[in-house]
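User: Please fill in residues for this 298-position structure.
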């Protein structure tokens, strides 16, 4: 009995110790689980904070990019010049020296004040210098207007949309390689074609904006500010004898042509005129005889 009692006490002691150890292990495991959950939650919070702070990063890049704003300039001028042709040539040479080029050049002749229009594309860095050149060369600047258009936001938006479309294009290309049936292949191909078309449109618009920013547009109306006085015509300018001979020859040619036309007309219509003339002659002859008989009877 004493041995049995000792055995029971020993078993009870071992059981209590085992439960305590298991409890400590459970507590330790719970502690580790809580610490892992806390770490995961912290990591998730950091990720959320990074995502939420992404607009700030983008806006920061936009702010840095904004230091070099994309500005498109369009300038209109109306000027008076001393010699129109010389001024147009001079401005074209100056535009070429500034690595620009002429888009349009028109000249209108006038007896008093000839005028013309010119359109240029000038590199952005030379825009101000070229406008100063025009003002200094002109005798008078009648009108000057410059319009600046900021296209930075539009360009950034186009870049973002282009990146998204390119990512979609990559996924569609991957799906296209993995397509197993014709139906899916056709559907993916149609989506891919639409996406690539949108990419081309976005790229074209971005290239247009880049060109508008890189080269400023300048339109100039030029008017010659001098009055052209006519000169007295001399004998060489009048050509009296030559003009008289020309008029005489023209008159003779007209008469010959008219007579020739009448002869052609008569000969051509003779099959119609001859019967009419014969019938008219017969009728006239009978009327005269009837009149003569009536006079004799009376």
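Assistant: Residues filled in for all 298 positions:
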């Amino acid at each position: 009995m004493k041995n049995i009692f000792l055995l029971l006490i020993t078993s009870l002691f071992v059981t209590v110790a085992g439960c305590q150890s298991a409890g400590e292990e459970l507590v330790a495991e719970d502690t580790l689980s809580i610490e892992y959950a806390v770490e995961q939650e912290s990591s998730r919070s950091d990720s959320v904070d990074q995502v939420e702070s992404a607009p700030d990063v983008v806006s920061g890049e936009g702010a840095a990019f904004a230091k070099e704003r994309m500005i498109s300039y369009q300038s209109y001028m109306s000027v008076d010049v001393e010699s129109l042709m010389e001024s147009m040539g001079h401005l074209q040479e100056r535009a070429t020296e500034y690595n620009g080029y002429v888009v349009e050049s028109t000249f209108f002749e006038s007896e008093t004040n000839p005028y013309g229009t010119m359109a240029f594309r000038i590199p952005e860095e030379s825009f101000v210098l070229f406008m100063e050149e025009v003002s200094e060369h002109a005798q008078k600047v009648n009108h000057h207007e410059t319009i600046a258009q900021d296209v930075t936001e539009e360009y950034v938006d186009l870049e973002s949309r282009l990146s998204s479309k390119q990512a979609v294009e990559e996924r569609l290309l991957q799906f296209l390689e993995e397509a197993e049936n014709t139906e899916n292949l056709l559907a993916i191909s149609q989506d891919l074609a639409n996406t690539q078309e949108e990419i081309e449109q976005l790229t074209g618009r971005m290239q247009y904006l880049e060109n508008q920013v890189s080269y400023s547009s300048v339109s100039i109306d030029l008017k010659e500010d001098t009055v052209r006085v006519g000169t007295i015509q001399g004998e060489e300018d009048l050509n009296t004898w030559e003009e008289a001979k020309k008029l005489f020859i023209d008159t003779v040619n007209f008469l010959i042509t008219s007579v020739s036309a009448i002869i052609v007309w008569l000969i051509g219509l003779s099959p119609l005129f001859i019967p009419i003339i014969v019938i008219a002659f017969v009728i006239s002859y009978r009327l005269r005889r009837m009149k003569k008989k009536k006079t004799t009877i009376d």
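For context: Confidence is low (pLDDT under 50) at residues 16-67.
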